[in-house]
Amino acid sequence: MDPFRLIIDGKKVPTKQCFEVLNPATEKPAGLAPLAEAEHLEDAVRVAKAAFKSWRNESERKRQTACLRIAEIIEAHAEELAQLLTAEQGKPLNGMGSRWEVGGAVAWTRYTASLSLPMKLLQDNNDGRVEIYRMPIGVVGSITPWNFPVMIAIWHMIPAILAGNTVVIKPSPYTPLATLRLVELMNQVLPRGVVNCVTGDDTIGPLMTGHKDIGKIVFTGSTGTGRRIMASAAETMKRLTLELGGNDAGIVLPDVDPKQIAERLFWGAFINGGQTCAALKRLYVHDDVYEDVCEELVRFARKVPVGIGSDESVMIGPVQNARQLEIVTDLVEDARPKGRVLLGGDAPSRNGRKQGYFFPLTIIADLKNGDRLVDEEQFGPVLPVIRYSDIDEAVDKANDNPNGLGGSVWGRDINAARSIAARLECGSVWINRHGAIQPNAPFGGVKQSGIGVEFGEEGLAEYTNLQVVFS
């Protein structure tokens, strides 16, 4: 198969070496990605820095128009990108899979293109005039994860270029192919050097976070990596947006109808096979409805087809990589003797198992805080269910975690649910649903789940420096 190329200064750039990108459903190569070296990153930053000089001076209207043209070209190549995404990431084509992700990328691009950060007049009187401007930062370094390679790349890049910055993006080595193609398409409508893509191993990221000519890093991924990025970026005082790990808790109140909420509970937890930062990862259920909620969750889960993502009937694919499969397996093995396995739970054996990094949909009841599957982020198709009898206790247990990305409250009495939601220590709270983000609503975490926000005007402003002009 022909290898993909880096995209630098609007051109395809070959590398001395390539690396295989595996399809997690078959463990066979999905493609060959270019292995960038330090000099490739230097070239990418250099051309991005040069392009910034002119791009920052383009009118906001012209940058908005460019973003709309990007949405059009993504939409025109939607099926190509979806097929590539399924091949390297493993998620299904249908449901909330690759076609949904690419469609979301189009919608996010279009909405973001409508945003504006105009001058704000703070004062205009006999004492003088004071104006506030939002100025672009410069070169933005984007480091993206493997769970939503296309969508998150768009979340990083579109507000960056709309604000007048230029971009060097490094996708995960597990899923670089769709991002390379996406950036290639974007270069058909953008000036050369505005968006560049380098792919490679874990040596490239630290070079980006410490680079003197990169003014901002935007990163989505684990809290551990986020800490290292903060430390590296401190040398040059880079601006940062970090969307880090989550261990989202859901609290089910005693007045729910278990049958009515089962489907939404399931997809809140198992979207993308549970490989979602803001997925429901711990479920606290009141005594009065505990067994019924467990029963309805299992009943719905049994109907959801799992398999190779290219099968049009499949709704959930494999775990994306072997290392993540090991993490999920380890947490489930630790939880099995401590709880009650309601569904799944049988760890796949490397000897004799079918190809692919598949783990069965798993629901384990009767666990508690202190159990690893409750305390640690599983990032896979597994949900622990915890019983509670006192709502104050449930809130305390939900908050007893270093993460604070999202949370949810489930109940018929919306006012009661809202009052409980206000007590949860997280950046987003949903009522009777979980994880439903949208482009006009800011999204970000508290505690160790990150710094800054994405989406909407607040997210766009994160790609700017504030400048005050006195006259």
What is this structure, in a nutshell?
This protein is α/β, with parallel strands linked by helices. Helix content is 36%, strand content 23%.
Give structural notes.
The chain has 471 residues and is of the alpha/beta class. It has two domains: 6-244 and 449-470, 3-Layer(aba) Sandwich (Aldehyde Dehydrogenase, Chain A, domain 1), CATH 3.40.605; 248-431, Aldehyde Dehydrogenase, Chain A, domain 2 (3-Layer(aba) Sandwich), CATH 3.40.309.10. It is 36% helix and 23% strand. It is built from 15 helices and 22 strands. The protein has helices at residues 38-55, 60-76, 78-89, 98-113, 149-162, 177-186, 204-209, 223-233, 258-270, 290-301, 322-335, 372-375, 391-399, 414-421, 456-461; strands spanning 6-8, 11-13, 18-23, 28-34, 120-125, 128-136, 139-143, 166-170, 195-197, 216-220, 239-243, 248-252, 280-286, 340-343, 362-365, 382-388, 403-404, 406-410, 428-431, 446-447, 450-451, 464-470. The strands form six sheets. It has a seven-stranded mixed sheet with strand order 14-15-16-13-12-18-19, with helices on both faces. The longest helix is centred in the first third of the chain and has 18 residues, at 38-55. It is globular, with a radius of gyration of 23 Å. The model has no long low-confidence stretch (mean pLDDT 97). Pfam families: Aldedh. Keywords: Oxidoreductase.
List the helices and strands and how they pair.
Elements: E1 6-8, E2 11-13, E3 18-23, E4 28-34, H1 38-55, H2 60-76, H3 78-89, H4 98-113, E5 120-125, E6 128-136, E7 139-143, H5 149-162, E8 166-170, H6 177-186, E9 195-197, H7 204-209, E10 216-220, H8 223-233, E11 239-243, E12 248-252, H9 258-270, E13 280-286, H10 290-301, H11 322-335, E14 340-343, E15 362-365, H12 372-375, E16 382-388, H13 391-399, E17 403-404, E18 406-410, H14 414-421, E19 428-431, E20 446-447, E21 450-451, H15 456-461, E22 464-470
Parallel strand pairs: 7-8, 7-10, 8-9, 10-11, 12-13, 12-18, 13-16, 15-16, 18-19
Antiparallel strand pairs: 1-2, 3-4, 5-6, 6-22, 11-21, 14-15, 17-20
